[in-house]
Design brief:
The complex is a heterodimer. Chain A has helices spanning 29-41, 47-73, 88-112, 122-142, 169-202, 206-215, 223-256, 268-294, 303-333, 337-348, 352-364, 372-375, 378-405, 420-443, 449-454. Chain A is mostly helical. By secondary structure, chain B is α+β, with helices and mostly antiparallel strands. Classes of the chains: A mainly alpha, B alpha+beta.
Chain lengths: 479, 180
C-alpha cells in the first residue's frame, strides 16, 4: 500500500486503492487500437528490430548447423553417455516446456479467475508458450537417435504391425505435449481473430488487407458471434487449465516413475508445475520489459503487471522452495542409504556448485522481491527474471545429472561434461525462440486490443436501458 | 441460387455501447426480430437486447470431449489387449490406470478443437464476404471504436423509410442503407 498521508502524485497509482493502475489513465478505444495496430502496420521497421532479428537469425543458423551435424554423426556428438543418458536434451526440454506454462496460466487460469490485468500481457505470453513448446519439442525428437523416425511415436497402422506402448510415461509425454502444443495454438489463434479483423480494417496496403482478411476469417464483430466466441474462450480456458497442470505432471512422471534416487518421489508433479510457472513468469518479464520499453507500451503494460508477475513468482518460488526442502527432509527421513547419499552428493559432490547456484538463484535472491520498491524497479525485475530462469535451468540440471551420474553402484558411476554441440543446440533454441518472437511482434498484434477495450472506462453499458420484455418467448431471429 | 440483390439492411452507427443497447432494446420493442449488432468487443447486453441468449458451443465441446475420451481409451485398450499385447513385468494387458493419462489428454484435445471449430462453424465463419462490409463506415469503426445496429431487410416489419426514421430517432451518428 502507498503511504496513507502523503498525497499520491504518481499518475500510475490509483488514489482510491493505492494500487498501480492496470492501464494508464486517458486511453480511449481509438487510442488503444491505434497504439497497438500501429506497431504492426507501420511501413517503417525500426532499426532495432532488424538488429535483434538478425542476431537471433544468426543463432538459428547455429542451431541448424548443430542439428545437421547431429543428423550426420548421431547423438554421440552430445555428452550423453551411460550412466548419464539424458543430458542437456531432457534438461532443456523440461526447462522450455516449463517456460511455456506461464503463458497458459496467464491466458487461461487468470481468465477463469477474472483477473482483468492479464489482458495486456496474455497475447504475447501465449505466443511465448507456443515458441517455447516448439523449442522444447525439438529436444526429445533429436535425442531419439534416429529423429527422422520420430513419427513412430504415434499410433498408426504400419507394415511392421507395431504399436506404441501406452504403459510408459514417455508415451504419455507424446500425447501431453502434442495436445498442449495444439491447444495452445488454437487458443492463441482464436483469441487473435477479432484483432486480426481490426488489422484487416486498418491496413493500408492491398497485400496486408488480403493477408489479414484471410486469417481473420471474415470476422465482423456480430454480437451473436461474440457470445459464442466468449463461450468458446471460457471453455478453452477451462480445458487449458487442467491441461497445463497435467503436462508438467506427466513430464515429472518421466522421472518419478523411475527408481533412481532423487527421482522416485511423489512430490515431483506439484513441484514441477510450480517450478514451471515460476520460470515462465520470469520469462514473461524477460520479454515484457524490453518490449514495453522499445515500443513505448508503458501505458498498457504497466508497473502493475510487473508487480503482479513478481508476486506470482514470489508465491511459486516459495512452493519450489518447499519442494527442495521436502527433498532434503525425505532424503533423511526415508533412512535410505541411497537417498541420503544422493542428497549429500548433490550438495557436496563434484557438482555441488550447481546445487548451490540453484538455491541462490531460486530461493535466496528472489526474497528481495518482498520489497515493493524493488518490485517496481524495472531494471531490478529484469535482472531477477534472468536470475530465476538461470536458477530453474540449474534445477533441471541438478535433477538430471547428479542423480544419473552417481546411482546405486559406485562401479557404474560416471560424470557429465557437455560438449560444444550441446551448448550450440541450447543457445540455438534460445535464438530460435527470440527469432520467432521478433516475427510475432512485427506481424501480429502483440496486445489483445479487443480485450483491452473491455477494460477502458467507457466499455461498460451505463444505465440499464429499461428491462427488456420477458415472459412470452419470442421467435429467434435468423442467423 | 441467384445472388440476392437490393437492400440488405439499414445500419445505424453509435458512439457508445450504451446508446447501442438502448437502440437495440427499442428495436426489439418495436417488433424487429431480424437484426444484429456489431461491436468491437463483446457487449453481452447487446446480445440480450436482440434476444440472443443461448449458444450451443458448450454442447459441441462436451460431445467432442467425450468422443476424444472414448477414442483414445478404446485405441489403447485395443492395442494393449488385442493388436499388440506385450507382457511388461507381468502387468495385466488391460492396464487401465496407465491408459487414463493419454485418454485425459485426448479428451482435452478434442474438446478444445470442438469448442474452437464449433464456434467458428456456428458463426458461419470463415466468410470472407458479407454485405455489412459494404457499409462505407463499417470497416472504419466496427473493429475499433464504433457500435452498429443493423436492421435486416428480411424482417417482416422492415421498410426502408419507416425503419430509417425509427433508427434516426435513436440518436445515432449516422444511418446508412447497405446493399448486397
Amino acid at each position: 500500500m502507498a503511504t496513507k498521508d502523503a498525497p499520491v502524485t504518481n499518475p500510475m497509482i490509483d488514489p482510491v486503492t493505492g494500487e498501480y493502475r492496470v492501464i494508464a489513465p486517458g486511453h480511449t478505444f481509438k487510442s488503444v487500437t491505434d497504439k497497438v495496430s500501429r506497431i504492426v502496420l507501420t511501413t517503417h521497421t525500426p532499426l532495432g528490430w532488424w538488429f535483434g532479428f538478425l542476431v537471433a537469425g544468426g543463432f538459428v543458423c547455429m542451431l541448424t548447423t548443430a542439428v545437421t551435424w547431429l543428423f550426420v554423426k548421431g547423438v554421440g556428438i552430445w555428452a550423453i553417455t551411460i550412466p548419464v543418458a539424458w543430458g542437456f536434451a531432457i534438461i532443456n526440454f523440461v526447462w522450455w516446456i516449463g517456460i511455456g506454462h506461464a503463458g497458459t496460466l496467464i491466458s487461461a487460469i487468470l481468465l477463469l479467475f477474472k483477473q482483468g490485468w492479464r489482458n495486456s500481457i496474455n497475447r504475447f505470453a501465449e505466443a511465448m508458450t507456443i515458441f517455447a513448446v516448439m523449442c522444447a519439442g525439438m529436444f526429445p525428437v533429436l535425442h531419439l537417435g534416429r529423429p527422422w523416425l520420430g513419427y513412430w511415436l504415434f499410433p498408426y497402422p504400419n507394415s511392421m504391425n507395431y504399436w506404441p506402448q501406452f504403459r510408459s510415461p514417455l508415451m504419455w509425454d507424446v500425447f501431453a505435449v502434442s495436445t498442449y502444443a495444439t491447444i495452445s495454438v488454437v487458443f492463441w489463434y482464436m483469441g487473435m481473430i477479432p484483432d486480426l479483423a481490426t488489422m484487416r480494417d486498418r491496413a493500408q496496403s492491398k497485400f496486408a488487407q488480403f493477408m489479414y482478411g484471410l486469417v481473420s476469417l471474415g470476422w465482423r464483430g456480430s454480437v451473436r458471434h461474440w457470445v459464442r466466441y466468449e463461450t468458446a474462450s471460457i471453455l478453452l480456458a477451462g480445458l487449458a487449465t487442467p491441461l497445463v497442470l497435467s503436462v508438467h505432471s506427466v513430464i515429472s512422471l518421466d522421472f518419478a516413475v523411475a527408481f533412481m534416487p532423487g527421482w522416485h518421489t511423489t512430490i515431483f508433479p506439484p513441484y514441477f508445475v510450480a517450478g514451471a510457472i515460476y520460470s515462465g513468469f520470469a520469462m514473461v518479464l524477460t520479454l515484457a520489459i524490453p518490449i514495453r520499453k522499445f515500443y513505448h507500451l508503458e501505458d498498457l503494460i504497466t508497473i502493475r503487471h510487473i508487480d503482479n508477475c513478481a508476486k506470482v513468482m514470489l508465491a511459486t518460488g516459495m512452493i519450489v522452495a518447499y519442494g527442495y526442502s521436502s527433498e532434503v527432509f525425505m532424503a533423511w527421513y526415508s533412512a535410505s542409504h541411497w537417498e541420503y547419499f544422493m542428497m549429500w552428493n548433490r550438495m557436496f559432490g563434484p557438482m555441488g556448485w550447481s546445487y548451490w547456484t540453484l538455491i541462490t538463484c531460486n530461493i535466496a535472491l528472489p526474497q528481495l522481491m518482498w520489497v515493493r520498491k524493488l518490485r517496481s524497479n524495472i531494471g531490478f525485475m529484469f535482472l531477477m527474471s534472468l536470475i530465476v530462469n538461470t536458477g530453474m535451468w540449474f534445477e533441471r540440471f541438478v535433477i538430471v545429472v547428479t542423480s544419473l551420474s552417481r546411482d546405486f553402484l559406485p562401479s557404474s558411476w560416471g560424470t557429465y561434461r557437455a560438449t560444444r554441440w550441446d551448448y550450440m543446440t541450447f543457445a540455438g533454441t534460445l535464438g530460435f525462440f527470440t527469432f520467432m518472437f521478433f516475427l510475432f511482434i512485427r506481424f501480429l498484434p502483440m496486445i489483445p486490443m479487443s480485450e483491452l477495450r473491455l477494460m477502458l472506462p467507457g466499455a461498460k453499458v451505463r444505465e440499464k436501458a429499461e428491462p427488456h420484455s420477458t415472459g412470452t418467448p419470442v421467435p429467434e431471429a435468423g442467423d | 441460387m441467384p445472388l440476392p440483390e437490393g437492400v440488405y439492411c439499414l445500419m445505424a452507427e453509435f458512439e457508445t455501447p450504451t446508446a447501442l443497447v438502448h437502440a437495440a432494446h427499442e428495436a426489439r420493442k418495436a417488433g424487429y426480430r431480424r437484426m444484429d449488432c456489431y461491436t468491437p468487443y463483446p457487449v453481452e447486453e447487446a446480445a440480450e437486447a436482440i434476444g440472443f441468449h443461448r449458444d450451443e458451443v458448450s454442447l459441441v465441446c462436451l460431445i467432442g470431449g467425450l468422443l476424444g475420451l472414448a477414442a483414445m481409451f478404446g485405441l489403447e485398450t485395443w492395442i494393449a489387449v488385442w493388436a499388440f499385447p506385450l507382457n511388461i513385468a507381468g502387468r495385466p494387458y488391460f492396464s487401465w490406470p496407465a491408459f487414463c493419462v493419454p485418454a485425459y489428454e485426448w479428451t482435452i484435445l478434442w474438446a478444445g478443437l470442438s469448442a474452437c471449430f464449433g464456434m467458428l462453424a456456428l458463426n458461419g465463419l470463415p466468410k470472407p464476404y458479407h454485405p455489412v462490409f459494404n457499409a462505407p463506415n463499417f470497416r472504419n469503426g466496427a473493429t475499433s471504436d464504433k457500435f452498429f445496429l443493423c436492421l435486416e431487410a428480411t424482417d417482416p416489419k422492415f421498410d426502408v423509410a419507416g425503419s430509417r426514421s425509427f433508427l434516426e430517432a435513436q440518436s445515432p451518428l449516422s444511418v446508412v442503407e447497405v446493399e448486397y
